[in-house]
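Take a specimen:
=====
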Amino acid sequence: MNKFFLLVLGLSLLTNLTAQDIYNIDTIQEIRIFFEEPDWDARLDSFKQLGNDERLVADVTINGKLYKDAGIRYKGNSSYFNIRKSGASKLPFNIKVNYKNKKQKLPGGYITLKLSNVFRDPSFLREILAYEIAGKYMPASRANFAKVYVNGKYLGLYHNSESVDDKFLDENFGNHKGTFFKCDPNWSAREFSHCPVSDKASLMYLGHDSLCYLRLYEIKSKTGWTDLMDLAKVLNKTPEKIESVLDINETLWMLAFNNVLVNLDSYSGRLCHNYYLYRDKTEVFHPVIWDMNLCFGGFRYTGLGSPLSNEDMQTLSPFEHYKQKNQKRPLITNLLSIGLYRKMYVAHVKTMVEENFSNGFYMKRAKELQKMIDPHVREDSNKLYTYEDFMANLESSAKADKSTIIGIEELMNKRTEYLTNHPLLQKEDPVISEVAHIDYETSLAVQARVEKAEKVWLFYRYDDKGRFMRLEMFDDSGHNDELEGDGFCGATPERKKGTQYYIVAEGEHSAMFSPRRASKELHVFE
């Protein structure tokens, strides 16, 4: 009987060992860019203003290793245009080390560095801390800090975030050949008059004309518009069939994360963007969260009215959009309308709160990171805030331009109290124990002792990537659960070595997972 958890990270454990100098959160990278052109800044500006992805060639030294003929461009929207307009020089970069030499790669096989200028985050901590928390529960980029120099001049301390690219897709989903979208509207693109009214990259169903989706999603694969339209149709017309086209558990983790951490510059906020969708070889889409610099209350708009006050963010309902029946957010409203999914979502909210906030982890970790970067922030003469604001914003509000950015502790201490005492999160959870699988050579039995549950579900798959299938587990002696009424529930999926699974016990108001971090952690039949 096997009770240990398989940490489903593909090859990421090996990657972390071989690439600690690139994304290890406890290290600060040193990146030196050398342009031959004295007007490099103006030329990069020109590329960006024209809206193309053209790059300027430069030599880049990363942690002492030279990468010749890399391709450099500015990146970002608000973090570029707002900062450029203000006259500041700390602009965000995208570096592709294999731009000319296709065999040239960073340690671990990476080819792209995305360097963010810590826009609207006086604490310098939001993006790094948020990605670390997200990575416990769902596919998410790794991120750390980097000191960036251009032609010998120190530009400042940046965030260094892993690109959601072919390598990321291979590691997390087994391949990179599937349909792939960046869900970020092109705000200046043409609207077509025959298309239904839409609300950004919200997955509202706009019919089966790809022109109606063209300005709302950026396609990264060669084809795939039909796949996206099919997903939107199922989500909006027949959401009870959504598991056939969407990884529901990863989606619920993303929605729970956005809510708990008040990450409103996301699907859950007014702009409804900053996520990717990837369709794997089993024809199931996976969401990938992206762009965390405004996490922890850095953006105050849900899209349902006025900007939120500090108190509004501290007491943001875990059912925002759902309780308003907002059809412009079908990924929230339609999924949470299904009882099982709503209970799974509540379980994820509770897990995130308990593992990161009510136990004080987030502040302990944030203070460690703050101490590590303190001297580098001090010497960053191009930073977008004062050093005093940097020191203050972990705990209390600080200014970013004309905006007030709530302190991380100021937000999350009261938010944790609010969520912990929320009536639905106070409901008694089912209990799962003694999880085991039994190999009968010709069949496989999965069983667990379950208490206080109305139904029990086995989610399983036969590969380490791809779609989970679902079976109901019964306490009826007919599913290798020993005796009827003994508290053990069982199910018998097809016997295949390498089967991965997790269990969901569904109570009247809530649910419990085993493992609690499923599907990032799983039980496995080897």
